[in-house]
Amino acid sequence: MEHFDVVVVGGGSAGELLSTLLVDAGRTVALVEGSRVGGECPYVACMPSKAMLRSAREHHDDVASHPLGAASVASASLIDDAAFQRAVRRRDEIAEHRDDHRAAARLQSHGVELVRGKARIRRQGVVAVDDRELGWTDLVISTGSQPARPEIEGLTGVATWTSDEALSASHRPSSVLVLGGGPVGCELAQVFARFGAVTTLIEAGPQLAGREQAQVAARLARVLRSDGIDVRLGTTAVQVTASDRAVRASLSDGTSVDVERIIVATGRYPDTDNLGLDTLGIEVDKGGAIPIDDQCRVTGHEHVWAAGDVTGVAPFTHTANYQARIVADNLLGCDRSASYIAIPRAIYTDPPVASVGRSAGTGTPDEGLLTAMMDLDQTGRAAIDGPSEGILVLTADRASGVLVGAAAIGPNADEWLAEAALAIRAQIPLTVLVDVVHAFPTYGEAFEPALRDLIAQRGDGSVTR
Fold it and tell me: Which of 2, 84, 94, 336 has a CB 3.0–4.6 Å from the CB of 329, allowing a cystine?
């Protein structure tokens, strides 16, 4: 039996980065991956979705300046389809045509033993891949997540796409129903709507974007509706059947919609199926995630670690990469703990939504949180660029006088909100943050009046409003 210092199960973002870090530091590593090296992000998720959103924005802007009012519906559809096909070609180039051979070659060039197949823990210290046994001193589980499919009568018998399938397809449906108003659902709804598909987006909860800041979520809904998307909140699909338009969905609001395709974007859950976790006595939590401590060590197991979506902690690519570095440092003799208080979140619609930390209104009323808001249309930059649905909401802890949360929607918010991520992570006092000077004219100036407002709410007279 072959023996390795570390066996990594799952070659997504976390597993790929962790493996290279460890072999570069002189450890022997085997990485087991049954699908693509790099996981879903480069091929069917993050990269292709952002590529399609960028192309959709360009097409939307082109159409807005094109005299389509004098064009027939048929010619408009041809324009949309041609633009969609150009976007697909660009998407597939960026996603390397969903071929991981370059990523695999890079991994192997570092000295990682890449093992293709499905891993299962056979016994303590041993992982099996088919008939091959891999011995380990330390085991890292980074198997990611898989799409959740809601239990809707008739759903399995009609034309559906998961988000992965929607971002791999070359066909532009004439109409779509998107199930789920989270980040993926909102992004896909805008993509297909801007390429001419009649789009309905339903969300079971009272707002889009889950538990994100309510005013920001409301503005996101207005943005999507301005794109012609039929956004319905507090609504679910109760039954789907075949129809002349391919699919008829009966909704909980008593209506029905006929569409060519249903896109299922109702979330994901940690992928721990058939790993043999019970062999080591590892129990997942009620959400299916593997419990870890602040060093990313699996709870109660000194030599078993986990990173990425399988942990259920802030399931983003950047979190997976962060946890990979935490695990690597601890395996290499450092004593490093993770902090998740400032993990940024983004929805890459046009304009994008960005947030970090806590949002006021999602906790109990007695938590002592202060909130301040700034409308981006009051900035000099908005006077130049034109009005938007932009807003910045800051949340601070009254007692400590530090920022604990920020949320925004507006042009390039996913970039300039990084200032808040740094402030929250470093626990910089509001009185220091308010002294930061922003270039004029930028959207970053929106921080200044909001911060002055928070300081005034604390009763601190050190600055004027």
Answer: 336
